[in-house]
Design a protein that fits this description.
Length: about 150
């Protein structure tokens, strides 16, 4: 684990080293899950899948090519989370965000708080709803608690 050096003007952050075993690249702010296949080792990460959304590993701090090592932020403020705005529900600061299966983005639709997958990432800003047909991920301020 890498802990950010204490600096009273910067938010505290914690990072872990991960190995991208997803078969594709991660871009800055995308969500990753721990690889829970038989080769699980606590370092390998992959693209989120519906069945394992509770295995959330953190957000990529920069691009990570397939079969390469990189950093995932697991705690603290992040201004570059990749969030897809919902077309019916506006993102409100304090909303719980969930990884989106097969896309590595977070979704601003409000999840059920007792679903076992929630509470890892919380929105720190408000966004409007997306326009149908023009839905794209955007960098969003969040707080991560996946340590």
């Amino acid at each position: 684990m890498l802990f950010q050096r204490v600096n009273r003007t910067d938010a505290e952050k914690v990072f872990v080293i991960v190995y991208n075993a997803s078969g594709g690249a991660f871009t800055t702010g995308q969500a990753m899950q721990w690889d829970v296949t038989p080769t699980a080792d606590g370092v390998r990460v992959t693209t989120p899948t519906t069945a394992q959304l509770s295995a959330f590993a953190g957000l990529a701090t920069a691009g990570i090519a397939n079969a390469a090592y990189g950093l995932a932020q697991v705690y603290g403020f992040c201004s570059t989370a990749s969030v897809v705005n919902d077309i019916t529900t506006a993102l409100v600061a304090g909303n719980i965000l969930l990884p989106v299966a097969s896309s590595a983005n977070l979704n601003c639709a409000t999840p059920v708080a007792s679903d076992g997958k929630s509470g890892f990432v919380v929105a720190m800003q408000t966004n409007t709803t997306a326009t149908a047909g023009a839905i794209a991920a955007a960098a969003t301020k969040v707080f991560i608690r996946a340590l």
